[in-house]
Amino acid sequence: MSDIDIMRRVRTAARITAGRTIFWSLARSGDLLSRFLQPGPGDDAYLLYERMRARGPVHRSRTGAYVVTSHALCSQVLRDPRFRVRDLSGRPADFDPFSDEATGPVAESFLEQDPPDHTRLRRLVAPAFRPALVRDYRSRIETIAHDLLDAAARRGSFDLITDFAAPLPITVITELLGVPDVDTDRFARFGAVVGQSLGGVYSVRQAEELRVATQDLETLFVELEAHRREHPGDDVPSILGAARAQGRLSMDELVATCGLLLIAGFETTVNLIGNATVALAHRPDQWELLRGEPVRAVAAVEETLRWDPSVQATVRVAHEPVELAGTTLPAGGRVILMLAAANRDPAAYDDPGRFDITRTGGPDHLAFSSGIHYCLGAPLARLEGEVALQVLADRLPRLHVAGPLRRRPGSAIRGFASIPMTAPALAAR
To answer: Which helix (H) or strand (E) holds 281?
Structure first.
């Protein structure tokens, strides 16, 4: 290890230790945002969000950030060009106001860019995710889903996450990106590391795992871009490689965009499938509704996205003074939009804490954000979730969780690391 590496690790350890101490101290003093970031509230998340809501639609955390829980206000901020994803110094905003560096591997992707760079980069990849093209993937997704359950039936027991919810969208997005020799376990680990980091980095070990994942993804896409230069196709790396040859994006931007599409293309969907399955397993009447009418899978996906979304919160920065619900936010003010709280706002939804796949009325949920940063992969995630639930309803007459659930660490991304299930009940296709 070089002296530079040693110094980098020392600085990282010092920063993480200092930040963790500050958050821990603020959480102990009653600061609810700090509790959210310590390092995630698990099953108590929605109780915490209601405590936040009780402090008003906008309240200032002792970290200095402003917390927003109202659906109307979250939607307003997401669509307001005065709020951006980069701070006044040009760095990507994150949840940690004490951080002095970007913590994720996608810092230069369009997810972390404001216009005009956001517009330029997103426009390059948007054609690959057109709803009409995504719909053509349905039969392929159905085949993958049934094959995964066939393998589970042969084993006699299976874990919904590792054996179904993760490999399904990983297989789909890696095919779309043209990634060869897919190791689904490896990519699932990448997704878990990156997803956990979105809410902050809380240990030196986590920082090191994130660094390794970032380097592995960079190597993967540099090599893939070189291969596609010699053997172009119609996949995203080929499209971006052609754009790079025309001077329309840099190599760093190409790698970051591919990394974003890979991780975002499966990470939230894994949690969508897991969260939906657990919600239905705990409500046999809802499961029977779905089994009797598989077309309700569309509604089940939307209700899951509202009731227990994969992405719990996001960050914006005011670039000029803005008044929000009677509170004046200064230029540079960091705003934490609690999307999961907004999706259960009683001012927006009737009986918002109830999971109901027959629900009608209410505004669009914010699980996929809103405005110019609305999730590009939303049509694909919805389709994968719909097909996954339909296949499970077809193959699992009785939805039964066979062991203790294990949640993933982290706060910004919510899901399960393990959902043990009974496989002998699997019906033949």
So the answer is: helix 251-281
